Amino acid sequence: MDYIAAVMGLLGGLGVLFIGFKVLSDAIEKLANERLRSWFSKTSSTGKLAGVGVGLVTTAIVQSSSATTVMTVGFVNAGVMSLTMATAVIMGANIGTTVTAQIAALSAFNFATFVLPFAFIGIFMTMIFKNDKVKTVGYILGGLGLVFVALDVMSSSMEIFQQSEVFTQAMMSIQNPFLLLLIGLVFTAIIQSSSAVTSILVALASTGVTIGGGGNSVLFIILGTNIGTCVTALLSSIGANTNAKRAALIHLMFNVFGSILFMIMLLIWNGDGTSFMDMTFATWFANAPTTQIAMFHTFFNVVCVLLFFPFINVFVKIACFIIRDKKAKTPKEIITYLDDRLLQTPSIAVMQAKKEITRIATEAMGILRKSVNSFIKKDAAEENNIREEIDKINESSKRITEFLVKLSGADLSYKDEKTLSAMHEAIGDVLRIADLADNMLKYTRHYINDKLEFSESVIADIESMCEKTEKLFDESMRAFNEVDVTSAVRAEQIETEVDGLKKHIVDGHIKRLNEGSCQPQSSSVLINLVGNLERAADHILNLAHTFDAV
Length: 550
Prior knowledge:
- The protein has two domains: 2-322, no CATH class; 340-544, Methane Monooxygenase Hydroxylase, Chain G, domain 1, CATH 1.20.58.
- Helices cover 78% and strands 0% of the residues.
- The protein has 24 helices and no strands.
């Protein structure tokens, strides 16, 4: 019965460990969301070494190399990250994930006892303080406290097994290196967390349980966990595009090749009392078996990155050779920057949603310009193409809205919640711009079918009004993307000029009507056309003020 209770305690501790790391990583991510957005927004323009840094820091924050890799697969699938950069990020993620083992190893030291009350202090802070940042800090402390509570429960649960001769003999009897590697691989693939398996090894080590009789035995399990953690990325690549599948394969190749190299080294350097472990980490950290495991985990991943970093392009070429491009051409995806895999990191997902709205807004402005050009040229040849593009914008807006709804269910900061709300309004403005472009196609059709005539000066004024609207769009999108107050002010000034041009065109037309020099039947077409263009300018200006209240 005691052993059943111990197993239940181990499973309970493992559950608390998952919750603790989840609370900790979510809170740190929320606190560092602006930094995360900044790092990932620069990955396309920075070097490979910077990509390693981004992967390392991000994984240290989210406490999961699997989460970072899945997110990277999402970026590649969305087409916003190159395969080369993704490889660098994945390498960095492998180093970043070792932070978890280092935290777990700290539980063996006396000062860890003083971290346990953080679970109470942190949650108490979230209950009494209203400030969002203070509450986030509270969750960080609470999550950290839960991690050490979990490790303490797991270690206590394992103590009874340490006293069992049957159990200790069973652990020591598993000495086949390939079986040990397979154990690490299978357990990690099932749990989908190398950090959790490593934490269990740390809990065992803290109670004095020796796996495989000592030496390099425990290290073979760690090598297995590094292969097993690739399962999550491989699963996430199902249904993704070719490059995303390649990114998942590169993750697998990196870990498998590294494990093979270390496996060979550990098999060669594996004498009794003279093994790699005995002569390195067991000597350097003689009285800290938990630290020995954590340090090897870090050492393995750092060495693999140093060895393979110069061969990033080789990894990419191998992946491209194994997973070939599909011969059949696939239709262009409606969505460019979004992928559901990005929902694992809400702050990054918010940034990508903003990029997607910018993209469809730019397309809407392009459609508006094409519609005005059709009128100016008195040519309806582009009407069908323009309507197809409008349909794509409508479909894109639905997909973005669905993504935002999913994202709203994530644990967002107060600022990101307001940003999401503002984005919904921005999508509405973009749709109205596209609708107004559609209206202009109807006026062009009337212009042609009713054989109307407009003077060169009127056409020139319409062209001038459209050019002003394009300048307004440029300033508005600068304000939208950079939350630039100066650009928003300039946008307001240009919008006022657009209003003035509309008034000038309408007043001139009325004057010509009174003079009898203009066709009365042209009134509705011209007035509605410039009226729609002026309304489009209003919606464009709204985009400049999207995030004023955020």
